[in-house]
Amino acid sequence: MSTEEIIQELENNLQVFKSLLMSKKEVQYLWRPAPEKWNLLEIVCHLLDEERDDFKTRVKHALETPERPLIPIDPEGWVKKRGYNTKDYNQTLQDFLEERKQSVVWLKTQIDANWSNALTHPELGDMSAELFLANWLAHDFLHIRQILGYDYNYLKQKTNLNLGYAGNW
To answer: Which residue, of 23, 24, 75, 79, has the greatest Cβ tally within 10 A?
Structure first.
């Protein structure tokens, strides 16, 4: 996929996330499919932090200052360190959607940038801006799949009905 196509998909996913996550009731966004799994509130907080503090920051870093060392991040640790379960679901969702809009606007100004610029990740080696951009979109797809699985399992548990007629999940 071209850079433009990936950016367009990131923009399209704004509506996908909005459709999947808006209008959830508290009982839904606090429900966990299993005790060790994230709830929707934690997923939304994660999406916001990844948008702001991971993908956008790292793409910008690779494009503008690839010679500088990478600032470490801790997405798993942020759940507790940043108090995800104390956040307001609807406000955090709005913040994420707004942050995504801003990301897309910024990305569209970077179409002609040198996407082969690479920085050195301490564990993964050289990573280009293009690689970070593609992984940003892949990250979206992973969480869209996660949210759909969440919705399916919520329906299954709360109805206590056999959903096999719908097809194999």
So the answer is: 24
Question: Rounded distance, CA 58 to CA 73, Å?
Answer: 10
**Tens digits of residue pLDDT in 24-76:** 999 999 999 999 999 999 999 999 999 999 999 999 999 999 999 888 898 89
Q: What is the radius of gyration, based on Cα positions, of the chain?
A: 18
Specify which residues 125 forms β-bridges with: 121
Locate 92 and state its tokens: 């955090």
The DSSP code sequence of 41-95 is HHHHHHHHHIIIIIIHHHHHHHHH-TTSPPPP--HHHHHHHTTGGGS-HHHHHHH
167: left (phi over 0), alpha (psi -120 to 50) or beta: left
Within a 10 A sphere around the Cβ of 137, how many other Cβ atoms? 19
Q: Is the pTM of this model over 0.85?
A: yes
- Both tokens of 125, joined, read 């080696």
Cα–Cα distance measured from residue 113 to residue 60, given in angstroms and rounded to the nearest whole number: 10
